[in-house]
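User: Hello! My lab partner asked me to get a predicted holo structure for this protein. The small molecule is zinc ion, SMILES included with the sequence. Please write out the structure tokens.
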Amino acid sequence: MTERLYYNDSYLTEFRARVVDVSPDDASPDRQRVYLDRTAFYPTSGGQPFDTGELGGLKVVEVADEGDRIAHVLAGALPGTEVDGRIDRERRFDHMQQHSGQHLLSAVLIELFDVPTVSFHLGAETCTIDVTGTLDAEQLREAEQRANHIVFENRPVAVSFQDSADDLGLRKPTEREGLVRIVSIQNLDRSACGGTHVRATGEIGPILLRKLDRVRGNMRIEFLCGSRSIARARADFDALSKIARIFSSPLDETPALVEAQREKLQETDRMRRRLSTELAQASGRALYGETIPGPDGIRRVLRRVEALAEESRAEAQSFTAAGPAIFLALAENPPSVLVAASKDSGVNCGETLKRLLGSAGGRGGGNATLAQGSLPAKAALAELSEALARELNFRP
Ligand SMILES: [Zn+2]
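Assistant: Hello! Below are the structure tokens for the protein in complex with zinc ion.
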């Protein structure tokens, strides 16, 4: 059975221990699972990830809870039977801030809104808790304020061991039998927990509540504590400052400014589209005027464009609306074709294109005066355009 030094001292990051067992790691032949008589390394459990660090100068890549024993997975083979352990202090303290912050936040959510926490996840970037019931953004702000207030009060956080048969007064009942480890925040919370915690709420640092999502019938709250809050606030400030600089505006005025810009952009885009359609229509009419009719009195135009857009259709329709006319547009990216014809031209665009597309392996269709289709390859486009030109009497 491994003695868990972190149970009584979360701040212990260096220790000496005896190796009691070593076994190869199934996942990788270069790795070893090492068991000690005592350890300060926290194994992944209760939502909190394992500690990293070194054991006998070798990197600890994972720490697993196997019930009575704790397995240290090492990136190499350990020499000797006595080892010095050293835990990554920064990572450990970060986990302490997040985990104690979680207890505090969960207790506050019960106190204010009677909303119990059902799960906790301590991630590499952010932490989340899932709670039952519903919460809104205003309640989230209220909880954030209350939680930080308790941080400022610097209430003691204590660890004690009590028998499960006693009246433990826990926030959430425990299924553990026998001796139970209880982490308490003075006059606020008592939780059965094996995690590493700070000694007073002041050490949790600022608590930031961020996203509120609905996840499988529960509410998920994303939060950050301590150094993570500071880092996040710094990143937020830098990002907002960049936006504010672009708009040459004070930071607090950027949301309204961005909203106004977005509306302006939408309006401008609508106007641009209207104008380019009008331009295409004018160009279609002008083209009709410039085109010399064939012996059959029909004016024919073949356009090669990069891609078929709304403007191509507008130009084609306006060209064929002016009098007896046929308009053919070919685009290479992607290979596609557009046919437009005036009603008196004797051409049914939809039928003609559909028939020719079928033999070219393409797809598309339309009505008698306008049709459009796409082709699988550029080679097929050349073939189709020849067939169309023949069918519609375009001069070679
Ligand atoms: Zn806990």
